[in-house]
Amino acid sequence: MIEARAPVSRRRIAIKVYDRRDMARPQFEGMSEAWLLGARVARPLFCDDADGIVATAWAGDESMIEALSKNATAREVQIVAAGEWLADWHRRGAVGLRAFAPELLTDPLADLRAAGTLGPNCAAALAALDRRASALTGAPCDEVRVFGDFAAKNLILNPQGPVAIDRPRRMRGPAARDHARFLLDLAINLARSELSVGARDARLAEDARILLKAYGGSPDLAAQVSLHFDRLALHRFAVAQHRARSRALMTYLATAVDCIASGRPALDWGDVAM
């Protein structure tokens, strides 16, 4: 993201240049649609298809993940704001209530399974997740228009509340998917901190409870968030094994996969009271 100023008004704008130029138009159209729905997203200004450029109004100077990394005392306030933002978005794109079914979940390791590169621990973790998904069959499940990449790095702090700078996806799915994506972003950030493993796990569990309460969730939603979180963590670990990643991140993900494979959730909520 590049900061620029309009030549006449000197108004600050944000410019994003895409390596894949064909990604600019979907980004612009998605942001425009969300803006017209009244969602708190950065106001889209123009799109240059030829150069793969999207310009939006300047949303703020600091992302939520940057603020959380520097200021632990304001952590609860920021996560509450994220939960309220997500609740507002899901209300605008609500589809309805349905019974949870394993078919609602996509296979996080389909590509690796097809390529025959799925390790034994990942296979055991995936089997454990399938059993947990089956156990949740029939539970109430809110189907919404999922945001997709709902992460603290994509929320910019603003005096009026956080502003999203990424486009929402045009797909339906369980509300839990967006919660899990946000919490995995926090977990990865905590993995890179100097906190002990126990302190990191306790903070993530507290973050999860704060997010769910601000959203207005239920114990059923909490169980589904945990399942989606673990599937995302498993996918991130399987993919990261084939790429250069920080030791701290790989250690966290490997520990999470071991936990999942043993039948325990990597995201441990503790007591969830709504």
Distance between the termini: 38 Å
Classification by helices and strands: alpha+beta
Low-pLDDT sequence parts: none
Largest sheet: 4 strands, antiparallel
> Can you list the strand order of the major beta sheet?
1-2-4-3
Tally the helices: what do you get?
Answer: 9
Q: Share of helix among residues?
A: 40-55%
Number of DSSP strand runs: 9
Instruction: Work out the strand percent.
Output: 5-15%
Radius of gyration: 19 Å
Mean pLDDT: 87
Shape: globular
The sequence of SSEs as H and E is: EEHEEHHEHHEEEEHHHH
Please characterize this protein's 3D structure.
The protein has 274 residues and is an alpha+beta fold. It is built from 9 helices and 9 strands. A 4-stranded antiparallel sheet has the order 1-2-4-3, with helices on one face. It has a 3-stranded antiparallel sheet with strand order 5-6-9. Strand 7 (155-156) and strand 8 form a beta hairpin. The longest helix is centred in the last third of the chain and has 22 residues, at 219-240. It starts with a strand and ends in a 13-residue tail after the last helix.
Short overview:
By secondary structure, the chain is α+β, with helices and mostly antiparallel strands. It is built from nine helices and nine strands. It has helices spanning 24-36, 64-70, 75-92, 110-115, 120-135, 176-191, 197-215, 219-240, 247-261; strands at 2-5, 12-17, 44-48, 53-57, 94-99, 140-145, 155-156, 163-164, 172-174.
